[in-house]
Structures are given as structure tokens and as C-alpha cells.
Amino acid sequence: MRHVSPAAALARGVTCWFSVLGVALPLFGQAPNLGPALALPAPASIAPAAGLQRNASVAVGGQSSLVVFEDDRAGERDIWAVRVDATGTPIDALPFPVCRAPGNQTLPSAVWNGTDWLVVFQSEYDPGSGYFASRVAAVRVAASGVVRDPVPMVLGQDDTGLLLAVASDGNQWFVAWTGYSAGNSDIRLRRISAAGTLLDGAGLVVQPASYQIYFGLGLAWANGTLLVSWQENGSRGRRYGASLQPIDAASVPLPVGGGVIRGGGPHFLTAWTRQTPSFTNEVVVQRLGTNLQVLDANPVPLSVPATSPNPTDVRATWDGLDWHVLWAQPVSDARTCRFSPAGVVRDPGGVLLPDNAAYVFYGPALGALPGGGVLFVWHEARFASADDVWALPRLASGAPAAERCVTLGDEAHRTPRLGPAATGHLATAIGELSAGMRLLVWRLDARGEAVDGQPIVATAVSHNRLQNGGSAWNGNHHLVVWADGQLGRVFARRLLPDGQWLDAQPIDVMPGVTPAVAANGTDFLVTALHAPQYPQYVNSYGVRVLGDGTVLDRPARLIAGSYATAAPVVELGGRWLVASELHWSHNQSQAGISLHFVDPNGTVTAAGAMSVLNIQNWGSVSLASAGTSALVASQSGSNWTNTEIYVQRVTPNGTSPVPMSVLTGAAPNGQFRPQVAWTGREYVVAYETYQNNVWSYDFEPDVYAQRLREDGTVVDAQGFALWRSADHETRVAALGGGLGRGLFAAAVHDEALAALRVSLRALRPQGLEPFGLGTPGCFGPHRLDGTEPPIAGASGFALRCDRGPAQGFGMLLAGTVADLLGSDPFGLGLRLHVSITPPATAAAVGFATDAAGVGGVSLPLPPGAAFVGMRFHTQAAFWWPGPCLPTPFGVSSSEGLTLVVQAP
Question: How confident is the model at residue 640 (pLDDT cuts 50, 70, 90)?
Fold first, then answer.
């Protein structure tokens, strides 16, 4: 290996490096240089999950029971599940997805066949009409919780919606369904084998369609007989054997009073409510033999008027020993009663299952627990947010146990925003659980990586009401802004670069919602929306906040109105530029973008407009400033699936030299909610898109971006993917970092945490390509980077590396061959990514680190076309004098960095 002294390297510049190391390669199309997706760190906060969880069902298995439910935590409504033990305690630390197909999946039911659960649900699909229809879908779930069918089985379909029922004979499953439209409401029945094979073609017709709709569809298996039941001018049914051989030639009236019919024991049980002579209601049951003979001469009462004067929502299940019947109470509680196969009421009047909250519960369901006992499940909005699924066991002993929420999740991170900082960036996001919300702040380095292991909390509230307004930097500190929707006010706190708050309590800035903020010198302008007199007339307002936290404008200054839905702000030419999205009225998508300047003294002046026809996603306007111009981006389209992103440039004098133009015209389907960043070389417009979705009612987007130069020239004819997967990715944020750098954030579903989390991707200058892992030092992995794009003739180009020893020493290694996996040629425990083995050529130069552990080498790049396309590979290494020794010999190394010289 050739060693070069630091003095010699600095004196001769990088020309001699190229004479030794340079390998000229042609430069082809310049695709965006994107870093990997990195999740922002946060401590685990497992609690009732954010989002909507509802319509649960319970099915007992061998050693556990499965609770299945609808859940929109990952975007649209999907089917999720959690296993519970004999006490109703969750076995799975977090629920797991059963089906996350495109569209909504709803109304799940599950049944055990001795080996697996079959989960049956209604799933939306595209019938070819551009609209959506419903189909019967099913997925098997093993006892271990593994989903056996990644692609759901499809049993039938109907464009009117579906009513489903499922049962098992202990080996195979039976599924019945009917439509919701008269004339299209035949009842069909199919079998699924234990191996997951669909039987019976398009389905056996149990009852032909008629002029009416069938309700109360049920399936029950008892003593070798399958009973299909429904409501049709009273209770009717039809019986089949295990191979679906008909026992009844046609449907027959059932000699019961209605309600639910359940199997599982030696015969069937029917349970319902009826009116008493004293004009109260009571819950009654009757046993029904498999020959359809009533075994109880009279309905048997279970409830008593003293404790249940008006019971509702009767449910029943078989636990292997007894039937359990549940009914709801008028004060948000429930009772259960056991009824033996011999017809004995074991708990006259029922046993109270007390819900610990006063909220009304919905969707009650009852299922057995392994070894006996039952689990009562329901959903309710206990925390005044979206619904959660709660469960309350009644154990095999007959005693109720403590209730618990079974739809848990980690804290969901929503609506990320990115702001500048002294040497890096600041990220903010809403952290949400069912019981409350927090505004979270992360300090990021220049590479977009988190500086702190956990976020800084700006504020916390108990209900679903926070709005993230982002942050701005005035050269000394950040101003972090948010709104409390319940109070209808905007607040702020000042944050120092070291992560310490300057304000012990939030600053009350102004009345309003949907805030935004930008700095101009040492001062800030905070914008928000407010209806001062009448809620139909919402205007955009602005308030200046001085660096010392003083709020100058009381009352807030009117900027534009009405009906305003967003007012982002940037600095342009020494003034603030505000873009107010204004609609024709409170219920109209037609809109325009009104532009105004706010001078440092608070004077508001009009600065033109951007004519947008329709904005389906209200608040979709975005701004970015290049200093010499600003770019306005919005969306326009007549519906959710044909929207496009439009852009218009604005100069510091308020003119628009180029008319509004469409950016995303080459992309199919809808593009929406743009966010703009200026990288110092070009604008980047990031947006959500449905371009990869297979049909128009699949509303889970990907995130793409396109670049355009300051003069409006489009760099990317088509967008490039920032986040593209089957997971939900939404609410992109964008920020420029100068010198060709950009940073993007989005809320992306994290399956391991069962929650949305903020993911970051950095856009780096062309010609800087990191690879490998290196050997971390005492403060974590080292990051080697260029100070600017490696352009031929860039005399100020240098390489810098962080997280080294303070006031220490490092070495920069450069060579012609990259070692992607890394090797340890000296046996020091030091992974090198630059090959030093002939015929590879390598050179090294030493450097010192500062008090922060940052050091590097100046590498002025020579001018001339001959150097364009030259490529070499670099890596930094450090020696640690102690007391910390990251390796036995006290050495560490950075990732590798390939340099490719770019044309000016």
C-alpha cells in the first residue's frame, strides 16, 4: 500500500490520487442517488392501538382462542387477529394481520376444525366495472398463529354486499352466504377441506333468490347434522349431512321464536328475547333436536326483570360442556348464563360482566375459551377516539376475570414534517395511541440519521386532537409549532440545537388550526386557519414571533380568505411568501391558490395566484424556496383517481414567468398531496400516488418524486419511487439540504410494531455512493461523506467522517477496487471495504479530528472533461486511545464511499 503524507496530499491535491487510482467510467443517465429507508427511533409504547378496530369474533382452538377483527391501523380496513389463552390473556405480544388485500376487508368470523382456524370475511374487489363489489374470502390460520394462505381463497361474490356464516364438523369447514339485494339474495353453501381445497363448485343453492332479502343467516353443526338457518317471515332452515347431501328437500319452518341458533352439543340451541306480560323483555332459550323437534315444551327464561329489564343483543356459544348465553344491559354492561345440555339453567338471572367504562359498547360477540369458559368481546370508543376491541373473560370456574384491550399496538407516528437545523435537520411527527397523542421531535444529522435514541416530547394531550405544524430554524434555535384542535389554538416552543427547550411551557401564538411556520432572519411567521365569526368562512392568518418568543401580532393579521384549507409559508427575497388554498365554499372541491407576501414589518401584499380546478385532498398545497424563486405545488382532478400534480414558479417580485404546468401527466391513476424541497441544485416534488394500484378503490398509496430545475425544466419524465411496497405509505414530507441534498419522510406501516412509523430517505448528490458497514466506533457507526457534489473543478471538495475520537487521529484510505463485504487483512478486527490486495492500488492519508470527533481530508477536484466519470473508493479508519476500545486493538472503520466525478 502506498502511503502519502498529509502535507503532500494537500499540496498536490487530488490530481496525483487520480494518477494512481483513477478509473474512468462512462456516465450514463443520472438516476437519483437515494439512501436506504431508515426508521426514526422511539421506545416501545405498547397500549390500545391508534386507529379503528371493531367487529370482533372469537373462536376456540386447541390450546388457545383466536380473536379476529377489522383494523385500519395499516391503511384501509384489514383483518387482524390475536390469540388468547384460557384466561383470555393475549398470547401474542401484538396482533398480527390475517389479510391485507387491496380494498376493505370486513365482518370476520372464525371457526376451528381441530387443526386450524378458518377466518371468513367480506372483501372488496374490482368486478371490472370500475366500482367495487364484495366477495366471500377465507384464510386458514394455524394454531401457532401462522397464516397458511397468503392469498385468500375466494368462495363467491356479490355486488350488493354479503352476509356470511361459517361452521365446522371437526374436519372440514362449511361457509354460507347471501346477498343484500332482493332477486339476488339466494343462499349458497360451500365446503373447504382441511387442506384448503375449495369444494362444491360455485356453491350449493340452499334457498333460491326471491323478492325479499334474507336476514339472520346462521350455520350450526351438531351430532352429524348441519343446519342452515335464516329469517324469512319467521325462522326457516335446511339440514345437510357432512357431504352436503340434503336431509330436507327444501327449506322448512323452524319451531323456534327466532334469535340465534348454535350447535356444538348433542343438539342445537336457539336464544332470543321476548316481551313479558309486564311489558319488560326477557332472554329465553329452547333446545332443538337435530330432527328439528323442540326439546323444551316452553322457552326457558334465563334473565330476570330485576337485573335485566330490557336485555338486547343476545349471543350464544358452546364451550364443550355448556351453552353460554350473553345479553347486553341498558347501562353498558353484559350478563352471561350457562345452560346445560340437559336443559338446566346454571346461573339464573345471569352473571354480571362489568365493563369498566360508561361508554356504550357495540358489536358484542361471544366465543369459548380452551378448557371451558367464554370470552365476551366488543368495541367502543372509550378514549373519545376511534374504536378499540375489548375482551372480558368468564373463566371455566364461572367467575369473571378482568377486562383488557386486545387490539394493542406500538405508538403510531403520523403526519411527519421536516425542518432545517444548524448542521442537520429536525423531524416532527404526531405520536398516537388510542388514549392520547404526543408531538414528537427528533434531531437529525446531515445524513438524516437520528442523533438521539428517542424523541423529544413537545406536548401531550389525552385525546385525538393534535396537528403537526412543523418547525423552522432562525440560526439560533428552532420554533416547533402545533395546533390543539379541541381548543382551536396554535402553540409553539423554542428548541436549542442541544435538544433543550427554551420555553418551559408552550407559547400561545394565535387562534386557529392547520399551522405552518417559516423563519426570516431571527424572526418567524406562523400561519393558521381560523373562522373568527362564522364557521362557513375560514380565513388564513399570520402572526410574527420574535426570536425571544414575543408574539408581535395580536390580533393575527388577515392574509387571505375564504374558505381556506391550508396556508404553507416560506422565506423568499427577504419576505415571507404564503400560499393559501381557498375553496369556493365549505363543501366544494373547486379551489385556487392565493399568494401573498408578508414583509418583516407585518405588511401583507397580494402576490398573484395559481388556478387549480379541483382539490380532492384539502390542504394539498406546498411551497419551497430556492432564494431566487419559489415553487408552488398542488393537485387537481375531478375525483380521487385521476388527480395530477401541478406546479408554478414565483419570483421575489410576485410574478410567475412560466404558467402553471402539470408535472405528473405521465403517471396513471391519481397523484396527490405534494411536498416540495429545494436541494440547492433542483426542486424535488414528492407526492403520494396510486399508479401501482390494481384498481381504483384500492386507497393505499406509494410515495414517488420528480425533479425539476429552477427554470422549470423537468429532470424526470416519470416519477421515481421513494417508498413502494404492499404496505401503507403516506403523508410525505420533503426538505432540501443544499448542495444537491434532500431528505424525505413518510408514515410507513411497520409490521413488527403493528403501527405506522416515520421512515426517512436521503437524496444525496450524484457521485457519492456509500456501501458496506465498516466497524463501529465507541459512538456507533461512522459515516463518511462529501461536503458537496464531486464535480470536476470543485476546489472546495472534501471528505468528512463523524463519530471518531475527540481530538484524535484517523486515516483516509482510497483505492481502485471496492471490497463490498469487507475483510480484515491485518487481523485487527477492522473491516476494510477498500481492497489493498494487488492488482488493486490503494493510498492512505492521515487526518486529525476535532472536539466533536469529526475529521477529514480536503480533496480539490481538478477541472477538465478527462476526469469526468473517474471512480475510486474510500473509507476512513480511527485509532482509539481508550478508555473505550471498540475492538481489542482499539480501531474502527467507516462505511465505504465510492466517488464518481461529475460533469459541471
Answer: low
Report the distance separating Cα 638 and Cα 616, nearest Å: 8
Instruction: Give the Cα separation of 321 and 890 in Å (integer).
Output: 68
Which pTM was predicted?
Answer: 0.91
CA distances from 486 to 360, 463, 466 (A): 22, 9, 8
Which phi and psi angles does 753 have, rounded to 5°?
-100, -5
- What is the distance between the alpha carbons of residues 859 and 875, in angstroms, rounded to a whole number? 14
Which is more confident, 25 or 135? 135
What is the DSSP secondary-structure string of 817-847?
SEEEEEE-TTSSS--EEE--STTS-EEEEEE
pLDDT tens profile 221-261:
999 999 999 999 899 999 999 999 999 999 999 998 888 99
Residue 517, C-alpha cell as written in the block:
411556520
Whole-angstrom distance, CA of residue 679 vs CA of residue 740:
5
Alpha-carbon dihedral of residues 800, 806, 809, 811, nearest 10 degrees? -30
Give yes or no for a contact between 649 and 594, defined as CB atoms under 8 angstroms apart. no
pLDDT, residue 7, reads 30
Distance, CA of 599 to CA of 886 (rounded, Å): 53
Beta bridge partners of 83: 66
**842-848 vs 2-3, strand pairing mode:** parallel
Cβ-defined contacts of 327-332 (< 8 Å, 24+):
327/273, 327/283, 327/302, 327/303, 328/361, 328/364, 331/358, 332/357, 332/358, 332/359, 332/360, 332/361
Q: Taking the mean position of all CA atoms in its chain, how far away is CA 59?
A: 28
The whole-angstrom separation of Cα 676 and Cα 593 is 15
Give, in degrees to the nearest 5, the angle at Cα 549 between 543 and 551: 30
Q: Which residues contact 342 (CB under 8 A, 6 or more apart)?
A: none
d(CA 718, CA 706): 7
Name the phi and psi angles at 331, rounded to 5: -115, 40
- List all residues 6 or more positions away from 248 whose beta carbon is below 8 Å from its beta carbon: 237, 238, 239
Total Cβ atoms within 10 A of residue 497 = 16
Dist. CA 648–CA 191, nearest whole Å: 59
Contact 721, 702 (CB under 8 A): yes
249-272 residues labelled b (16+ CB within 10 A) or e (exposed) = eebeebebbbbbbbbbbebbbbbb
Kindly give the pairing relationship between strand 478-484 and strand 891-893: unpaired
- Among all chains, which residue has been given the C-alpha cell 440547492? 680
Residue pLDDT, tens place only, 77-129: 999 999 999 999 999 999 999 999 989 999 999 999 999 999 999 999 888 77
Cα 277 to Cα 24: distance, rounded to the nearest angstrom: 98
